[in-house]
Amino acid sequence: MDASVAGEKEREAVQLMAEAEKRVKASHSFLRGLFGGNRVEEACEMYTRAANMFKIAKNWSAAGNAFCQAAKLHMQLQSKHDAATCFVDAGNAYKKADPQEAINCLNTSIDIYTDMGRFTIAAKHHITIAEIYESELVDIEKAIAHYEQAADYYKGEESNSSANKCLLKVAGYAAQLEQYPKAIEMFEQIGTSTMDNPLLKHSAKDYFFKAALCHFIVDELNAKLALEKYEEMFPAFTDSRECKLLKKLLEAHEEQNCEAYTEAVKEFDSISRLDQWLTTMLLRIKKSIQGDNEGDLK
């Protein structure tokens, strides 16, 4: 954007902020009973317009601050829904400049939405916070907590597929952090809830596969028992490439045969590309065959 246009918008926004502030102060005067509410409403509108101008000028912190001012006035006017919307707008603006402040605004909006019984919207904003912790602040433990809270709210509203998406994130991260019992419990839970659904049952094999790999890292015998259990619960799993791979890996592990293990993985990868998570888990299992030697899968 043209710098002069951005500068002009920013100047207009600053003027509007000052004007809004005057309105707020005037609303506290002795005429408050007559005009106070109107003045606050006008100030709300000015703060929102200023916020949008700051957005055009790409001054994200100023935009976030202006939306926050509008949100606080909406609370004063008992307009909860408008307040929550402004806090979300503030959070989205701050995301580009101050991730922690974005989280604070989104948490405030969540408090308002849960108070209003709007749990599905609250869950959506918990996911946004989790994503900020994942990518901006790199605090995986906190990301997990927000995905779990989102899943809880979705379950309460019977949005099971949305809940499962959040729990998959939690399970994946739990395994990366070596919290295997938690990861196993969640992968099994999701596998069990999807295996009877005609539209989702093809995914169930992936969840049981991941649960079995987590078992395998902890203990080979556990993995064998889990595999038997999954085949019994979900007979279609037996014919899957994932189940066949697990059996080959268990055999290679039992024989401490590193080459057979690598070969089985390579063969699987040539048809279904392994993602980063699976590669990490398979390497962890391979290290238990090799002792402490660093290994590669290919």
Q: Summary?
A:
With 298 residues, this protein is mainly α. Helices cover 81% and strands 0% of the residues.
CATH architecture of the domain at 180-297: Alpha Horseshoe
Task: Output the radius of gyration.
Answer: 26 Å
Please provide the count of β strands. Answer: 0
Q: In CATH terms, what is the fold-level topology of the domain at 180-297?
A: Serine Threonine Protein Phosphatase 5, Tetratricopeptide repeat
Tell me the series of helices and strands, N- to C-terminal: HHHHHHHHHHHHHH
> What value does the average pLDDT take?
85
Number of helices: 14
Taking the alpha carbons of the first and last residues, their distance comes to 48 Å
Largest sheet: number of strands, sense, barrel closure: none
Helix content: over 70%
Question: Which blocks of ≥5 consecutive residues have pLDDT under 50?
Answer: none
The proportion of strand residues reads: under 5%
CATH class descriptor of the domain at 180-297: Mainly Alpha
Give the helix/strand class.
mainly alpha
CATH level-four homologous superfamily name of the domain at 180-297 = Tetratricopeptide repeat domain
What's the shape? Answer: elongated
Main location: membrane
GO biological process, one term: intracellular protein transport
Family: Belongs to the SNAP family.
GO cellular component, one term: synaptobrevin 2-SNAP-25-syntaxin-1a complex
